[in-house]
Amino acid sequence: MGFSLAKVFHGSHKTQLHVSDSMHVSIELSHEAFYRYLFAKDKQELSIPQKLVVDVCLQNMQKKEVRNKAVPRLPNVIPRLLKSLRDPDSSARDYVDIIDKDPVMASSVLKLANSAYFNPIGRRINEIEQAVVKLGISGLRSVLSAAVMQPILQKESAYFSQSGQRIWQHSLTCAVACERIAIHRKLDPYKVYLLGLVHDIGKITLFSELSKQFKLNKEEVGPGYNAFVPPLRKMSAALSYWIAKDWELDEALIHALADQCKIKKDEEVSAFGHTLYQADLASELYVCVYPKKPKKAQAVLHELDLPMDLFEHFEKLNKQL
Description:
Layout: E1 14-17, H1 21-38, H2 48-60, H3 64-70, H4 77-85, H5 92-100, H6 103-113, H7 128-153, H8 163-185, H9 189-198, H10 201-217, H11 225-246, H12 251-260, E2 267-270, H13 271-288, H14 294-303, H15 310-318
Helix pairs in contact: 1-13, 2-10, 2-11, 5-7, 6-7, 7-9, 8-9, 8-13, 8-15, 10-11, 11-12, 12-13
């Protein structure tokens, strides 16, 4: 893989993205490999009714009123967490109060808090108060955000049953990559973590809507790779941006998601947008290249000036997910 990327200009809000021709080709191959990981490739062509379903879904997702029905409202804890970053009086007690009101959330928080990534020592955490002490406020923010986003990102489907789980795992891996890169580059780690967590909301939303409509169609032959991947390639990045705007997320996050729709050779992008782009690529490499060619995957991290322990963090993260 001929990856090459110029240095990041750390002191600026913008960064120049220099992409060689060989890197552009390699990135496309990485994206294609990731789609094959999500949806096993076949040669099945779309039927006429399936083509109509795809066209209607793509048109509908451009309408805010339709998106509002397809996408859950942003969990109200997320704006509270973002607000807490600016509030010097914010305390761990505030988070405990949020979690204790929701038993399902509490269970999810404890599961994540006991994962090898968030709890490397391995001493069992059984109470939310323990989680606060062990994780600290910054760690708790990340765990809580993941816990509230998981049901939105990990949707079950009648088709390609593993895809929802894999999109969720990729989103969490990308969030961790964003956080590690942000620390490396002196950016706000929690905001960038949240960016990685939500960046594929468009992908899971469109996948779920297509699945629902195909199911209503009741055809004898179920939809295959070609029914999902082309529309996802076409619209998922833009849909993530639209949903972030609908949710009224922080402007820096919305801008970074907009960057993903237009990244090209020598494109000027925001520092957050650049970080997400590289974190997403590293997360794809982790599942598509690293298992068979770990040295090649590590070489890419080096070329992109990314933390060399990223894949180790991913391994810990995925042990218990």
